[in-house]
Amino acid sequence: MLGPLIGAGAVVATAGAAAYHAMAPWAQGFGATFVGGSPSSKQIALTYDDGPNDPHTFKLLDVLANDDVRATFFLIGRYVERRPDIVRDLLKAGHAIGNHTLTHPSLALTGAEQTRIQLEECQRAVQDATGESPRLFRPPFGARRPHTLRIARSLGLEPVMWNVTSWDWKVPPAAKIVETCNRHIGGGAVILMHDGSHLGFGADRWQTVVATHLLIEEWRAKGYEFVTIPEMMGSSVVSRQSPVAG
């Protein structure tokens, strides 16, 4: 009787480990990803997924410009095709952009061929819109498999995760977003936020816009600087296993 039970336990453990490495933002079992900067630094990176989005990407651009901050935006290709002008405005303002696939599927459930199509089509959309190709990639939901990261790197993309989760996609009040982030922000923080929604174009992200200004104001007063992901990656020490915050 013990043999089958031990075998079943091993299968469950293996499945659990696979799920962990497929979904945990800080997990490295399926390949190295950038998670955050040096904890000893005074750098914070604001990152936004699921855009471009009208009107809230524009509102966010206004806030970031007024606060003199550059951020990193991970773009959904089908929205880039819909509003290439917003992407051009992002680049013109000095923000970094990244590939967030064409349609935002869970790549943990997507085979190699479809994964490559998702990434290549997003690259094409951004290239058509701006004349430039992204060099960064963030998998939707953070979900990946070993081939996900191999394909990304074959396209010249550096996988980027995060170590502070704002939970802003649940659309809480701005003060709650700030409170959630503040519990976990420190040196080398990469904050996951959203200027759009994979569920549909035109999502209301006003609370995220407000929270962005509040976070900048508070942490700048503490002596921190806000940088793009490429700027943080260019620092002398980075962490690929920073603890995630929920």
Summarize the structure.
This protein is an alpha/beta fold. Helices cover 43% and strands 14% of the residues.
Topology:
Elements: H1 2-23, E1 36-37, E2 43-51, H2 56-66, E3 72-75, H3 77-82, H4 84-92, E4 96-99, H5 112-130, E5 136-137, H6 146-154, E6 158-159, E7 164-165, H7 174-182, E8 189-194, H8 206-221, E9 225-226, H9 229-233, E10 238-239
Parallel strand pairs: 2-3, 2-8, 2-9, 3-4, 5-6, 7-8
Antiparallel strand pairs: 1-10
Helix pairs in contact: 2-8, 4-5, 5-6, 7-8
Question: What report would you give on this structure?
Answer:
With 246 residues, the protein is α/β, with parallel strands linked by helices. It has one domain (2-239): Alpha-Beta Barrel (TIM Barrel), CATH 3.20.20.370. Helices cover 43% and strands 14% of the residues. The protein contains nine helices and ten strands. It has helices spanning 2-23, 56-66, 77-82, 84-92, 112-130, 146-154, 174-182, 206-221, 229-233, and strands spanning 36-37, 43-51, 72-75, 96-99, 136-137, 158-159, 164-165, 189-194, 225-226, 238-239. Strands 2, 3, 4, 7, 8 and 9 form a six-stranded parallel sheet that branches. Strands 1-10 form a two-stranded antiparallel ribbon. α2 (56-66) runs parallel beside α8 (206-221), α4 packs across α5 and α5 (112-130) packs parallel to α6. The termini are far apart. Residues 8-13 and 236-246 have low confidence and may be disordered.
**Rg over C-alpha atoms, rounded to the nearest angstrom:** 18 Å
Specify the oligomeric state: single chain
Largest sheet: 6 strands, parallel
CATH class: Alpha Beta
What portion of residues belong to β-strands? Answer: 5-15%
How many individual β-strands? 10
How much helix, percentage-wise, in residues?
A: 40-55%
Distance between the termini: 41 Å
- How is the CATH topology named? TIM Barrel
CATH architecture: Alpha-Beta Barrel
Averaged pLDDT: 91
Give the CA-based shape: globular
Listing every helix as H and every strand as E from the N terminus to the C terminus, the arrangement reads HEEHEHHEHEHEEHEHEHE
Content-based structural category: alpha/beta
Number of discrete domains = 1
Low-confidence stretches: 8-13, 236-246
| Name of the CATH homologous superfamily | Glycoside hydrolase/deacetylase
Number of helical elements = 9
